[in-house]
Amino acid sequence: MTESSESNSEQVHPEQASAKANDSSQIEQLLLLLRRKAENWVAWGQACQQLQKAGYSPQQIFEETGFEPVQQNQITVASQVYGSIVSGGASEQVRSRFERTGSDTLYEFRILTQPERAAAAALVVEKGIDSEGAREVAKALKDFSRLTTPPAEFSEYPGDAVALHYWRLARQQSDLQMRSRLIALALRFAQSDSARRQVEKLLTDFTITRTRSAPRLPLYRLDSEEELARVLPVAGKLPLTAADLQAVPIIEEESPFGLVRFTGTGAWVPFRDGRWCWGQKIRWCCWRIRTSSLNRWRESENRF
Question: Which CATH class is domain 22-127?
Fold first, then answer.
C-alpha cells in the first residue's frame, strides 16, 4: 500500500509533461534563433527577454549564443521601445527603417514616454540622425516636457523642442565657431516660423547668456558603522586637570542615527571616526563615546 502511494506521487501528469516539453522546445528555438542570428534585431531582443524570464542569466545567454550582456541589454530595451512606437502609430517608413537597423538609436529613447518615443523616432528618420544625435534629441524632448512654461516662440512640435535645446546652448557659447554650429543645428530642427525667427536673432545678437547650474548636495554612502559621524564633548583647553576630565558628561547614542540627548552647559564637536578636529588657536581634547564609556582620549599639537 505504501509502495503504491509513493509510486502514484512520483507520477507526472501528462499535461504537465507536455507543457514542460513545449517550454524546453521553445527555449531551444530561441537559442537557435540567436545562434544563427535569424530574422532581425527586434526578434533577438524579444528572444533575450523571454530567455531571461525563463531563468537564463545574461552570462548563460552569452555562453549559449555569443551575444554579450551589453548587447543583450541594448537590443532588449530597444525592442521594447520599438514595440511602443509601433503601438503609438508609427508610420510604415519609420517601422521599416528600424526593423533593419537602429537598436542603438532606439535605446536612447528609453527615457521618453510612448508619444515622445514615436515623435522622436519620426524626427530622426526625417532628419537622418545617428545614435549620438538621437541622444541629444531624447535629452531635448525630456527637458522640454519638464518645462512648466516653455518660451512662447517655441511650439510643442518635437523639432521646436530640439531647436530650443540648441538655441539655449548657442546663447551660452562664447566660441564663434561652436556658436555658429549650434545655431545651424537649431535652424535644422526648428519647425515653426516663430522658432526659426527666434534662432535667427542669434546671428546678429552676440550676447552671451550663461546659466548657473544648481549646486549638488553631497551624497555619502556609509559602508559600516565606523564611518558614522560622532558628536563628542569638548573638555576645554590644555592643560587639563582631573576635575576637567571628570566634568565631561557621559552620553549614550540612540539608534539608528546616533541621536544624543543632553541638558546643561558645555561645548560639543562633530567629527567622523578616526579624525581629530583642531582649532587654529585652541587645541581640543576629544573622546570617542562607545557604549556609555570614555575608552580613550588623545591630545596632540599642530596636527590636522
Answer: mainly alpha
Is residue 205 within 8 Å of 170, Cβ to Cβ?
no
pLDDT in tens, 104-123: 999 999 999 999 999 999 99
Q: Which three cell numbers stand for residue 1?
A: 500500500
Q: Which three cell numbers mark 152?
A: 512662447
Question: Could you tell me which of 144, 143, 85 has the C-alpha nearest to residue 110?
Answer: 85
Q: Where are the domains of the chain?
A: 22-127, 135-203
Q: How far apart are the first and last CA of the chain?
A: 83
Among residues 121, 25, 38, which one has the least CA distance to residue 78? 121
Q: Which cell goes with 10?
A: 512520483
Taking the CB of residue 153, how many other CB atoms lie within 10 A of it? 19
Residue given cell 554579450 in the structure block: 68
pLDDT for 287 beyond 50? no
Write the pLDDT tens digit of every residue in 227-262: 566 777 888 778 888 888 888 877 777 777 777 787
Query: 107 near 116, Cβ under 8 Å?
Result: no
Question: What b/e string do you get for 221-259 counting C-beta neighbours within 10 Å, with b at 16 or more?
Answer: eeeeeeeeebebbbbbeeeeeeeeeeebeebebeeeeee
With a CB cutoff of 8 Å and minimum separation 6, the contacts of 88 are 114, 115, 117, 118
| H-run or E-run covering 178 | helix 176-189
